[in-house]
Amino acid sequence: MNSVSGLFYAIISSATFGLIPLFTVPSINSGVAVNTVVFARFFISFVAMGIVMLLKGKSFKISKNDYKTLCWLSFFYASTSILLTLSYLYIPSGMATTIHFLYPVLVTLIMILLFKESGNWIVYTAIFLAVMGVAFLGHSDTGGSINTIGLTLALITVCTYATYIVGVRKSKVHEMDSFKMTFYILMNCAIIFFINVLVQDGGFSPIPDTETALNLVMLALISTLVSDLTLIVAVQKVGPTTTAILGCMEPLTAVSIGVYFLGETCNMLQIIGIIVILFAVILTIIGTQLRRRKVIKI
Asked: Could you tell me which residues are beta bridge partners of residue 145?
């Protein structure tokens, strides 16, 4: 029963994260600045996570060294959020989310190159397919290239989020309670974007209507808090590998939302690119798991 509920939580986690464009794009289109959108996302979710921790009786106590580590990890997490949101201004949100989903491939590559973990033919094939997938995504409907700025922003999020993941794995905070770590990451991101709003924009954008306010609340609660909490439960019940494989629901949800609700389009080459990237990520996860179990060699 645990495995069935774990699969359910894993699907909910990735699907709710894939809903980010549904709430973000309309908010930006209504005139709310990007910095205000991301601040609202992290501030509301940080407060909500604090309430969850209080209800569960979780401790907020943290050492100075752990908090320092979480501060620099929060920088990469915040960078991922703002750059991915900015990429929605230039390329379809589904495409941006699919490109962002390449981060497991880069995490694996970093672990092989910098931390001397062994590779295997499955992982190397996946990396090759990932590059091909991005190349397919780079073709627009007119036969030219997709917007370079948007493509670059989305690709940078692969680097920032992969760095965040590796940082968590290789630092002492990986032993920290998941709820506590998530709470402080969200809090730090809220602080970062509060400062960013004041410095870059000179103040917060006004919220024009109730619908936009609701979108911001849903962005924080559904696509951040629910996604993070169900991710924790899924990893506990079915493990990180199965959870990561089911993470393919994230780009699939984002693409579907973009096409059916946001008026975005995908040509055949881009659809092929999305499929190739999803296959590459699943191959990477499987290849990494087999390597750790020593089922296959280089």
From this structure: 139
Do the beta carbons of residue 39 and residue 26 sit within 8 Å? no
Token pair belonging to 61: 């106590």
Domain parsing of the chain, residue ranges: 2-292
DSSP string, 165-227: HHHHHHSGGGGS-HHHHHHHHHHHHHHHHHHHIIIIISSPPP--SHHHHHHHHHHHIIIIIIH
| 89 within 8 A of 150, measured Cβ to Cβ | yes
Residue 280 makes CB contacts below 8 A (sequence gap 6+) with 102, 105, 126, 127, 129, 130, 133
Q: Output the DSSP codes for 45-106.
A: HHHHHHHHHHHHT------HHHHHHHHHHHHHHHHHHHHHHHHTTTS-HHHHHHHHTTHHHH
Assign 269 to helix, strand or coil: helix
**Looking at residue 193, what is its pLDDT?**
96
Q: Which residues of the chain have pLDDT under 70?
A: 1-3, 139-145, 241, 291-298
Strand partners, 139: 145
Q: Which residue, chain included where needed, has tokens 């995908």?
A: 266
